[in-house]
Design brief:
CATH superfamily of the domain at 139-234: Tetratricopeptide repeat domain
Helix content: over 70%
Mean pLDDT: 82
Structural class: mainly alpha
CATH architecture of the domain at 139-234: Alpha Horseshoe
Number of strands: 0
Radius of gyration: 29 Å
Shape: flat
CATH topology of the domain at 139-234: Serine Threonine Protein Phosphatase 5, Tetratricopeptide repeat
Low-confidence stretches: 1-8, 43-53
Distance between the termini: 78 Å
Amino acid sequence: MANNEKLGSKKMEQEAEKENFVTKTLAFFNKYQNIIYGVIIGLLVIACAIIAFNRFYIQKKNAEASAQIVRPISLFMLGDTTSLNLALEGDDENDGFLTIASDYKLTRTANTANYYAGLTYLKLGQKDEAMDYLKKFKKKEDVLWYACQMTIGDLYDDQGDEASAIKYYEKASKSKDPLFTPTALFKLGQMYERQEKWNEALKAYKEIENRFYAEYNKMSIAQYVERAQSKVSK
């Protein structure tokens, strides 16, 4: 009987707490309803503005930029110094990568222009400028982004900054692309060999074997695996 009374009392207390919470909530809402409605309306206005901005500005600008970038990419593919400078700077009739990247900010095409600007500077032998623009390239086009990370790794390797080179080769090696990912892993293994980190080197080489067996054979990675294993076993 006593237990039933305790349970009943506890149930009444819980119901009272619930009623008290509801009462306080309603009182708070009634007191601040104008502010609450204002916040909700403000959030809806912001959301609508973002949608409209993307639809009527960003998409339009991206279409314009996409049309503009065709010419500089064609010039970039030619590869000679004159064409590369035109691809980068543009002329009176066509924008170059630098202008597209600057004038069409926030668009995917401007992002791509940063990548090609970096590659163009690299072909022209201007490695500092190349690094600046390659680092501006954001991860929107996955395949290009991973390739970009490997290129940045190469630039750091040229500078003798092994730690940064390893960092970017590791980023590049996360790709599933069968064309350049094995190369990124191989470069990573080579960097670890220089530092005599044979376990890490072996891991990089074995990853090529496990993920890209055809490339593993083409690149004759077995000899590097054998060497790394011999060093690890000592």
